[in-house]
Amino acid sequence: MKYKKPKDDAFYKRRLMSRHPFEKYMIKFTPMTLLLVTLNTIVLLINLIFVHLFNTYELTNLLAVSHYEVASGEYYRLVTSTFLHVGVSHFLFNIFALYILGKFVEGIYTPWHMLITYITAGTIASLFSLVFITEGISLGASGAVYGLLGLIIIHLLITRKIKAKLIFQIIAVFAVVSVLSMFTANINHYAHIGGLIVGVLLGIIFNFRKIQFKYTIIAAAVLILFTMFSHFGMNQQTSVHPMDDEALHYYEEGNYDAALEVVNNSINKEVATDMTYYLLGKLYIESGDGEKGQQYVDKSYEMDPSNEFAAKEKILEFRKVQDYESMNEAISKLDTPVEDKGLQILLDEAN
Question: Helix, strand, or coil here: 351?
Fold first, then answer.
């Protein structure tokens, strides 16, 4: 820095007056982009403190998107998850693209256009992904970032500023991000697709003065329909609570101590479901306390007779004592089609 030759005013003037959009807008002051980068950074630091100092994922569980919780009415997660990242590498990939594309979008339009695109694309992208992803959690700004990309592409097409150099620069940015993201597991590609679609539609809406108004109306209608489709599609899927999903994973692996820790955590946080008590019952049975374990399995079944895990236990119990009337009643309470293969075998035998 000490021996670097300072650039004269003519350098900045040339860049500011450049006809190349990327060079022109990258030099502009973009407060909303900086604000969004700062908010993402603050949330990352707080989450790292929770994870590494307090050894808890409480903030992640509170803010991340999961099908079960969003379908249960916690729609705020669609927004908060766009500011949450699982680790430093995940954060850097997204923020690298957010900074570059954000400066471009905010330089072309206004800070409010930038904010609207980030929130709208990120929120609807997360909602769209829940149509296809019903297990685990999802988080990160990538859906919003792809929304910014879609907006830029439409702007360039409408203003006819597509040039080879500019295309190469945009492709280079996302090639780097894509290559680096390959080293990160569980990429939510559905959120990327959803964000890109929303960005394209917003690009048409924002440029209503430069195109025929009917295209703006069509884009707005498609955006509303796309959001409605995502919401409807999400509600057609079934899922389990992410903590139950984690506990079930540990249980099936035979890691009963870890499964019990997650189950107890769900009960202490008062987010226990029928699946939580089913797993608690199975853990008691594995520990040798079959009577108490069966009580929790029965409680799980009473809470939700359509729970296939608990229902299978009850159907086997009824069949063992030849109580076919109760067995058929339990079968009638199941949702169709049945996903559990073992339960399906029981149903085929009963028929």
Answer: coil
**Residues 123 and 225 placed together within one structural domain of the fold:** yes
From its phi and psi, is residue 78 left (phi > 0), alpha (psi between -120 and 50) or beta? alpha
Q: Is 241 exposed, middle or buried (0-12, 13-18, 19+ CB in 10 A)?
A: buried
Q: 135 and 256: one domain?
A: no
Q: Furthest-apart CA pair in the chain: how many Å?
A: 92
What are the pLDDT digits (tens) for 57-85?
888 888 999 998 898 899 999 999 999 99
Q: What is the pLDDT of residues 138-166, one digit of tens each?
A: 899 999 999 999 998 898 888 876 666 66
Given 235, 253, 270, the domain boundary residue is 235
Average of pLDDT values for 224-240?
91
Q: What is the pLDDT of residue 1?
A: 41
Residues 106, 30 contacting (CB under 8 angstroms):
yes
Lowest mean pLDDT among 129-133, 157-161, 295-299: 157-161
CA dist 131 to 121, 173, 204, 267, Å? 16, 29, 25, 28
Q: Give dist(CA 143, CA 90) in Å, integer.
A: 13
DSSP, residue by residue, 85-101: -SSHHHHHHHHHHHHHH
* Angle value at C-alpha 303, between 302 and 308, nearest 5 degrees: 85
pTM of the model: 0.77
SS3 state at 65: strand
Residue 263 half-sphere exposure, CB side, CA atoms within 13 Å?
23
- Collapse the DSSP code of 66 into the 3-class scheme (helix H, G, I; strand E, B; otherwise coil) and give the result: coil
CA-to-CA distance for 19 and 243, rounded, in angstroms?
Answer: 53
What is the DSSP secondary-structure string of 206-237?
A: HTTTTS-HHHHHHHHHHHHHHHHHHHHHHHTS
Q: What angle do CA 239, 250, 88 make, to 5 degrees?
A: 80
- What CATH number did the domain enclosing 307 receive? 1.25.40.10
Structural domain count, the chain: 2
